[in-house]
Amino acid sequence: MPKPCVAEVMHPCASATIQSETTLREAAKRILTTGLEALPVVDDTGAFSGLVVQSALIRELMCTRCRSTVVQPI
């Protein structure tokens, strides 16, 4: 019996990426509209630079001083 691979369970969705300059609010909207729990962050060349996870996004948005903070690699 063949072993299952990632391709069998992944959800390919190239349009569900965000740029590092995306605000947290915009990222939250994208998570809501896509129904995903995380969004890949890509740089100007389209290369993967990080991941925004729904729980971390909610935690940051709960902080009023963070409303205009942008998504960026740490």
Describe this structure in words.
This protein is α+β, with helices and mostly antiparallel strands. The protein is built from 2 helices and 3 strands. It has helices at residues 24-34, 54-61, and strands at residues 18-19, 38-42, 48-53. Strands 1-2-3 form a 3-stranded mixed sheet. β1, α1 (24-34) and β2 form a beta-alpha-beta unit. α1 packs across α2 (54-61). The model has no long low-confidence stretch (mean pLDDT 82).
Notable features of this structure?
alpha+beta; 3-stranded mixed sheet; 74 residues
The dominant shape is: globular
* pLDDT < 50 runs, ≥5 residues: none
Could you report the average pLDDT, rounded to the nearest whole number?
A: 82
Helix content: 25-40%
Secondary structure class reads alpha+beta
Strand elements, count? 3
Largest sheet properties: 3 strands, mixed
Strand order of the largest sheet: 1-2-3
Distance between the amino and carboxyl termini:
42 Å
Gyration radius, rounded:
14 Å
Give the helices and strands as they follow along the chain: EHEEH
- Count of alpha/pi helices: 2
What portion of the residues fall into strands of 2 or more residues? 15-25%
